[in-house]
Amino acid sequence: MGVWKKTPEKKEGQGHLLLQQPSAVTKEKCSKPKKRPGVSAKERKRNFYQLFYNNHFVLALSLVIAILIWFIVSYSNVSNRPRVVYDVPITLEMSEAAQEEGLRVFAQSEDTANVSISGNGIVINRITAEDIQVVGTVAPAKSSDGMVTYTITLTAVKKGGGVLSDYEIVKVEPSTITVDVDAYVEKSFSIDSNVKYSVSSTYFANTPILSSENVMVSGPRSVVNKVSTVQAEYDIHDSLTKTATVSTKLMAYDQYGIAVTDENLELSMENVEVTIPIYLRKDLSLTPMLVRTPSGFGKNRLKVSPDSIEVAGPEESLSGMREMSLDPIDLTKIDFDNPVFEASVSLPAGFKNVSNVWTAQVEVDLDGYTQKTFTVSNVSAVNAGENQKVEVLTGAVRVTLAGPEETIASLTADDLYVQADLTGQTSLTGTVELAATVGVTGRTDCWPIGKYTVNAFIE
């Protein structure tokens, strides 16, 4: 229905209110309720599509979908899923009898195996090669003197416990392997130097010195028994003029000189250092020496044969040397019928006797000399201790004296004396034999032949 409202209408001479009927437009506006402002369905659809252009929304949605897919795949048929664990190391165990015989495995056809397992998908997907052990037992039926090949059956066992053991082992591939078995032995060998080198003609190469003299060879008994020698090998191409040290490789050889190169043969060291001492070579004159030289007895009376030898030694020591002294000879031991001595050749430390002559003959020229025997009664003891009382029991000593002919002819027994020296022998007591020396009063050109003693009582 229409809405009436009062409209003031002014007429002349009077005023009153008139009720005015609503117009058609006004009626229409009043008859329809007002709509609330909002978003249309089309706009809502457009806003939904715009979410897929939001990176954060897409990332979150992708994560949710991925998790759903993983759960669907993981839990679909999880109770009995197969899987192969690859490259599980093979462990070989020796039987007690094999261990007693010292047997070892030196080669095997395979080092790893593949193990097929079955079980809950969540569990078996977590199993790795470290969770399984593949084992084979080596149990030779009888002992042998050489390398023997055996076929070993492999089995797989679970290492872990708890949840990770909730699966079944289906098979092992390969199910068998072959192994080479022999007794393990060790043997020590001396190292032979086989260093090839050349030396200048004025130098001498001494025996090579090795940093280690022995090496331990180990491995299969059948292989070690083939080894006859171990050599340190090296080639030096330049001619040596000074000491050289080289690092050499060790090689094992059999009795026929053929290298033993088995891969199971081991040496305790692969290399050794070899030092080759290089010495200067030189000829040196041999000079005779006397223990005691009587006056007037010159070295020209001594003839040496050979009169020189070739020696080698450190260049800094040998370069200034001209002669080599022989060990002294003792004229008290001379034989007038055969006045020849054997004198030893002694070299300084570090020198080498290239001539390999170790003694020389020294012939003594006794022309104008003679010998004579005297009975000497002038016998005494000297240099006794303060608390020692010495009584000489020997009354006379027969002494042979050598010297120039004219001197010997002029001497008598009274010119000679025999003395026992007690210096440093303060502890001697009782009847003793003492070493004695022979002297000639007023003469130094004579000497006694032989050794002499006297008897004395000491208290």
How would you describe the overall organization of this protein?
The protein has 459 residues and is mainly beta. It is 13% helix and 47% strand. It is built from 8 helices and 32 strands. The strands form 7 sheets. Strands 4, 7, 10, 12, 13, 14, 15, 16 and 17 form a 9-stranded mixed sheet that branches. Strands 8-6-3-5-9 form a 5-stranded mixed sheet. Strands 11, 18, 20, 21 and 23 form a 5-stranded mixed sheet that branches. A hairpin with a 3-residue loop joins strand 14 and strand 15 (244-253). The protein is elongated, with a radius of gyration of 59 Å. Mean pLDDT is 87; it is low at 1-36.
Question: Any descriptors?
Answer:
disordered N terminus, mainly beta, nine-stranded mixed sheet, 459 residues
Short description:
This protein has helices at residues 24-31, 41-50, 55-74, 96-100, 121-124, 221-224, 315-318, 405-410, and strands at residues 5-11, 14-20, 81-94, 103-108, 112-119, 132-138, 148-153, 155-158, 167-173, 176-199, 203-205, 209-210, 214-220, 229-240, 244-253, 266-267, 271-276, 278-287, 302-305, 308-313, 323-325, 340-344, 352-353, 359-364, 369-376, 379-382, 390-392, 397-404, 416-421, 430-440, 447-449, 452-458. With 459 residues, it is mostly beta strands.
